[in-house]
Amino acid sequence: MSTADRPRAGALLFVVLTIAALLCFANITKHEELVYDGYFLVELNDTYKQVDEQRSEHGVFAALTKLTQVFGEEFWEATNRARPQILRVEGQALYRPLMMYTLGVARLMSDTRDTKTGKGLHDPLPFNAMNLGFHVGCTWLVALLALHLSRRRSIAWLAGLLFAVHPIHSEAVSYTAGLGETQATFFALVSLYAYVRTCNAVRTSVPGLIVTILAFAASLFTKESGAITLVLLLLVDFARGNDAPRAGVRLLVLGAMLGIVAANIAIRLQVTGALAPDSHVISRLDNPLVKESFAARLATGPMLYVKAVLLFLWPASLSADYSFNQLPIARSLAEPGAFVSFLLCALMTVAGFIALKRRAALGFGLLAFLFAFGPVSNIPVPIGTIFGERLLYLPSVGLCIALAVVFDQIGRALGARNEALRAATRGVFIVLVVVAGIRTSNRNAFYSSNEVLYSNMPETAPESSRGYFQRAEYERGRPKKERNLNIAIADYKESIRIWPEFLYAYHQLAIATAENGDVKGGLAQLDLLKAMIGPGESVRYLRNMIELTKAQISQIATPGDGRSREEIQKLFEDQIRLAPDDIGPYLALIPLYLDQNEVQKAKDLLANSPLPTKDGLRHTASQLQIAGREQRIDDVRGLLATLQQELTKENAADAGDVRGLVTFYSAVLGRVDGLAARASGDLAKSQQLLSDALTGLDQYVEKNEGDWQGYFFRGELKHMALEQYDEALLDYQEALKLNGTYTMLYLRIHQVINLLRRFDPNTLRLSEECEKLMPKDAGLKMMRAQFLSAIGRHEEAAAKVKEAIQMGLSGSIAYAMVSSELTLAGKADEAMNVLTEILKTRKDPLLIDAVGSVLLETNDPKGALARYEEALALAQSSPEWRGSISELEFKIAKTRILIPGQEAEGVKTLTAIAELVPPAGLSAIEQRSADQRRAFAMRQLARARLNVEALKDPAAAVTLLEQSVQLARGAKIDKPNLRDLLVDLADAYAANGRLQDARKSLDDAERAAGANQDIELRRSKWQ
């Protein structure tokens, strides 16, 4: 070939490769939607939503600038940020900012449209076009790299065509989440080719070096696998032998690359907090190797290598899913499959190194595959999945080049004998390329929509638990007229058969069973699931989810028609006008009115109804509901007794609704009586009554999921009596969904959030929603202020209390809270002005106490002490303030500890309180109160031992806090206070260097009353 012909041949190669790739993957431009992880990454990413807002307000450039935020985020961090922790994908230590930036750019280019799956979803065309563009670029670079290594244009053609059309690439190119593979591989190949093209023994190009290093950085910041480029570069130099650049150049390039790797590691640690995935967040469903030993990973890894090679050579059984239990796991290399696979990998390695000097392209190809697949083989560390075809995209570069060399050698060997054989070899290769292209095109269709993907998973991965689960989920999610729940149920069961530990599959099976008409079967399935699960944060969430699902199942049993409350109410009112003697609308309207706090309307309706003559039982039941809403406890008792007698009659056998009311009000009375027994000191009776009340409310809620009162009173019981704050919050929220007009719900929700000290985006949204719905409620403003204070927004909290005061809330506690929040916000002068002004017209110990607190916060303990002593003197002379004397004495003692020279006096007072054994004959309630006071005195002494320089003694602090915790447990201190005590004990252990005991104390604190910010902060600090 002449010199003039070479550019034409090169151009022809690029044209043919481009056409081949586009023909094979053209159908991905017609995909209907972003599937699976692509949907989660793009549609549910909060950062991208902020970028969209930036674009609509300030334009594209501002949006692209905002998009740089992804460089400070973990891969999954912004996805479903508002979801509970258990439903988020975190802890995998993935940092892929350039991939996320590219997806963000594609999203900006993508219009939203209506689809079968919902409104406003992004058109997949820009994402797929971008992915295909990277694939075409990779195809060119594979051909160029093969040409440079082999010096044979025929090998470049073969390698390029193989890479362009190979079916193993379908997942990476067709699947939006596969963009990381194509993009990282593209930059890796740019780096390699720039290096081999511009750096050799004769000359070194500075621009070429810059491209080499920058492309390597781009590959690494796209995906972790880009790091292997460094190893591939070394292989290239080995293959080139004497043509490799001088040692100084190589050291320069390697040094720069290692510097980039170090920078990537440092940033990754800063952003994700880890280098390797946390095995606790990777499910065995995704990667069965995650809980296995290194020996098992070492034995299984070679089998995955062989699986990859076999799929490359014969891509007939490709699948989008290889999760549990599709692939076999080996426990040791002694197993036949593992041993044979290990030998094959060893032979391939030896063959690669031998060929590296004789046939550079072949050796490079074999070794490039071996090294590139290593990081995703699960041998070094377990990754998020056991195997995936998209993970073979970069390793397949080596296999394509190696196979091209083999084909070329076969063609040459046969051609040396007979020209016809050479032509036949070319013909066979062309046929293989065409067949592979058709297979690739067909395979692409699997990623066209979630429906196609999920429906085919079990067919291509018959032993995968996830495959059946995903198909069941998709089937159950179809519109009711189209879905077949029998298919979904069968798939859920098959998923569980393959992996019996798949708890979420049991949960979804329960819902599907109930939706299919078997409500009892669904509830039984939930009971089975509840019995299976053990302790832990994620399990606590699962238990709560089970309880919430019971509401869903109950609604399935009595489905509504989709009308609003107002429409239903009007419908019943019209029915009464048309047929005033029909009791049905009356029975429905009375609880509707009560739910809207229209008690008088309900009473008038009952008085004019035909219920007394037509159904005395239900007339009495309606009276009971009204009496309950008006909190006439004695009337409730009498009506309840009447109903219980009536229900024993044969003619009341079908009165299921009335039985439900009896259960409910019996439980409510049980709560009232249980609290009364507790107040009188009869703790055994109280505990029994409260336990029975909870059982009754559970039964009622299970059968009457649409009644907000069931949730509300169960929440009250758990909140006020049983201290089950997590579950109480869930019940209050469910009640709020059913009745958004009941003011007390908003107050209760804030009370529980403040007790839990769990302030996250969900509770922040809930708090804001409560205030929007009840903007004129002063009590709610105070609760909102407490919430804002707890999350550190003290100035806003002060503003909320001021609003409450303007609405008429004029108690001293409101002014004290304003001053406290202003002080914490750094506005002590303004706080003092507020208190000075109110003290002109009102002088009570609480306000003087507040002045002392401001002085203490501004580092004036002597001034604070004087104010506390003044407040104490006033409280002692005023009968209405006698209850605050103990608290003021406590504050005086704590303040003295902070004043040099008075520490001993403060310690003496607190010690006296701590050692004061209550006299005999006290009631149980009085005994508990005294013991709690002693426990808190010990706690303050311990804090002094930890924090006050003159009194520091960490060992003594541990002893005091251990005694305090023991005393508090005996005194049945409320759970949040016990949690705070245990956190203090953890601090004391840590100060003594006992980190293991500190972590155990944090675990005890979490078990006492759930996790909060204080626990999480310390846990991350003491890891």
Task: Describe the protein in words.
A hairpin with a 2-residue loop joins strand 1 (112-115) and strand 2. It contains 48 helices and 2 strands. The radius of gyration is 36 Å and the shape is globular. Helix content is 71%, strand content 1%. Helix 22 (519-532) packs antiparallel against helix 23. The longest helix has 26 residues, at 125-150. Strands 1-2 form a two-stranded antiparallel ribbon. By secondary structure, it is mainly alpha-helical.
Essential attributes:
1023 residues, mainly alpha, two-stranded antiparallel ribbon, 71% helix, disordered N terminus
SSE blueprint:
Layout: H1 5-25, H2 37-43, H3 46-58, H4 60-67, H5 97-109, E1 112-115, E2 118-122, H6 125-150, H7 153-165, H8 170-174, H9 179-198, H10 206-222, H11 229-240, H12 247-272, H13 294-313, H14 336-358, H15 360-373, H16 395-417, H17 419-444, H18 450-460, H19 465-477, H20 485-498, H21 503-515, H22 519-532, H23 537-557, H24 565-578, H25 583-595, H26 599-607, H27 611-614, H28 616-629, H29 633-646, H30 656-679, H31 683-703, H32 708-721, H33 725-738, H34 743-756, H35 761-773, H36 778-790, H37 794-806, H38 812-824, H39 828-839, H40 845-857, H41 861-877, H42 885-897, H43 903-915, H44 924-947, H45 954-970, H46 975-991, H47 995-1009, H48 1013-1021
Helix pairs in contact: 1-6, 1-7, 1-17, 3-4, 4-5, 5-10, 6-7, 6-9, 6-16, 7-16, 7-17, 9-10, 9-11, 10-12, 11-15, 13-14, 14-15, 15-16, 16-17, 18-19, 19-20, 20-21, 21-22, 21-23, 22-23, 24-25, 25-26, 25-28, 26-28, 28-29, 28-30, 29-30, 30-31, 30-32, 31-32, 32-33, 33-34, 34-35, 34-36, 35-36, ...
